[in-house]
Amino acid sequence: MKPKCSEYKNKFYKKSVCIISDCFIPTRNSASGMIYNLSRSLLKEGALVTCIHSGQNPEKKQSHFKNYDISGINFITTNFLDSFRNKNIVSRFFFEICLSLILSIKVIRFYKQLQNNDIVIWYGPSAFLWLPAFLIKKISNAPIYYILRDIFPDWLKSIGLIKNNTLFKILHFLSHPQYLIPNKIGVESPENLKLLKQKLRKKSKLEVLYNWPSINSKELFILKKRKEYSKIRAVYTGNFGSAQDANNVLKFLNKFTDNKILKIIFYSKNIYPKLDKINYVSFKKTVQENELPNIFHSSNCGIVSLNRNLFSSNIPGKFVSYTQFGLPILCFANKKSKISRLINENECGIVIDYKDDIGINIEKIKSFFKKIKSNNNIYSKNSKILHEKLFDIIQVKKQIGSLFDDI
Q: How does DSSP classify residue 141?
């Protein structure tokens, strides 16, 4: 675990920084908010920032960006086939391939604008963006820092979304340049570092780079005081599908009958009709990052769920946001996973593993709810401490900026 960065030397002053990703605000996910915050933070350092991504062009859709400060950021965008992004795994693959090709054409078109670039920050999980990233590197001779978040296609195989071994090998071949092109690769946990060392010959290019906040409360928001309700209000934000073990969450919540003390709100693109019929569970549309602070301030705890068969040790962006606002964590995951250890070691919540006895798990949740409603809510205090210790954007800039030392 890296300590909070106490000394920071700005290496981005007057540097041209290109950030390439598959999304940006106002897309409603943590990655978009993280990239936006990083862009704004680098601008404050005096950097010249260009964002290349799939999404809306601020020059054409200014009203969609009214809640954000995007002044000073240059954009190269495309929204072609963006509707295919979240339909299913097949359409997602089609979208990823097309996005890589279209952004590559855009890079060639704007090569004069990119040829003086000093560094490329490539944000995963879009593994196929290695092609436009590679072109920018060739045009500008700039180093690439790859922020790797999902180990593709391995994670799809681990949860059973890919069962055909031939298909897995094809996807592995097509995405393998993601490990070869970057000068440095930052993964989100020490455990993922060990997994990737098996794939790379040059292991020195790997390091741990933890997530950072997707919400900039100091710059953007006026926060309301946390409301008091008679029931425990639990909130879930973000994707809710196979990777999040949605079916097992459904089964467990169906068995939790003490609904007089609980209200769960899912802000998610995926709606499960059976889950929505549980009288203490409701689904609402996803919201933009700038709407989340008031939601978090009216909640008692944040829910995180990861498929217990997921081999990689991911730390979801929603987890970072919960800790940023001091929310205790109710986590559904493999108790041996990285996020489970983080929660248990820092005493900022509890972990429910479906392999454990259902009666024990239900009693554990009841005890958890009783404690977070008490005056001595140690979970909330520890949640904030964990955030300050681990998820600092200054540390992120320090690690990415170290690439300039190697040039």
A: -
Upstream peptide bond of 125 is cis (omega within 30 degrees of 0): yes
Pairwise CA distance, residues 373 & 353, whole Å: 23
Mean pLDDT of the 28-52 span:
92
Peptide bond into 26 cis (omega under 30): yes
The 10s digit of each residue's pLDDT in 102-153 is 999 999 999 999 999 999 999 988 889 999 999 999 999 999 999 998 888 7
Task: Identify the pLDDT of residue 181.
Answer: 93
Contact between 205 and 399 (Cβ < 8 Å): no
Give the CA distances from residue 114 to residues 57, 139, 147, in Å, rounded to whole numbers and listed in that order: 18, 7, 20
Nearest to 309 by CA among 90, 93, 163, 126: 163
- What share of residues in the chain are helix, strand, coil (percent, to 5)? 45, 15, 40
Average pLDDT over residues 21-50: 91
pLDDT at 276 over 70: no
- Residue 374 and residue 285: Cα distance in Å, rounded? 31
- Which residue is listed with tokens 């190269």? 76
3 state DSSP class of 119 = strand
Residues in the chain: 407
Q: Which residues pair with 206 in a beta bridge?
A: 185
Name the region of 160 (left: φ>0; alpha: ψ -120 to 50; beta: rest).
Answer: left
